[in-house]
Write a structure and sequence with these properties.
single chain, two-stranded antiparallel sheet, mainly alpha, elongated
Length: about 160
């Protein structure tokens, strides 16, 4: 083991640095050399100061009360969260119903118009294309729509809490 190694090894366990957490003695501290400026050199630039022109926003007492109600999960806070969950669930169920109606209508459509089921595009039957490929862009679009609705509901909730 070298003298430069601060960590000793005892049976594969590293020992901590013995100087860790101790203040160095005044004789051990090294101070950087400071060059004195000569009259021919320009004066040092003053330090920058950050100036804030606007006072910090204060929270209204109603907003603070609503946040406390939510944090402490009082009956009113639980009611607010329950309403948010209901709105989110309603949006999800409506979009789910839309997907079920659209995708459920396709097999009925092909059953009613059997000549439509006999059509082929590039050798592939139209029902296979309609049921195997087209649902994915529909599901992606509905997912994006739900995401935007959910974010809007959450923003409305936060706005209601802050006002």
């Amino acid at each position: 083991m070298t003298d430069d190694d601060f960590y000793g090894s005892v049976d594969g366990i590293r020992q901590p640095d013995p100087t860790l957490g101790k203040k160095p003695l005044p004789s051990e501290t090294q101070r950087p050399a400071v060059a004195l400026s000569t009259p021919s050199e320009p004066a040092a630039k003053p330090r920058r100061q950050r100036v804030v022109l606007a006072a910090p926003r204060r929270m209204s007492s109603a907003s603070m009360r609503a946040r406390v109600e939510l944090a402490e999960q009082t009956s009113w806070g639980k009611l607010l969260v329950k309403d948010l969950v209901k709105v989110q669930l309603r949006a999800g169920l409506l979009l789910f119903g839309l997907v079920v109606v659209v995708l459920g209508a396709l097999p009925v459509l092909f059953h009613q118009w059997s000549e439509l089921a006999a059509w082929r595009v590039i050798g592939i039957p139209v029902p296979w294309i309609a049921l195997g490929i087209l649902p994915f862009p529909l599901l992606f679009a509905v997912g994006m729509w739900y995401n935007r609705l959910a974010e809007r509901h959450e923003q409305d909730f936060v706005a209601m809490i802050e006002n």
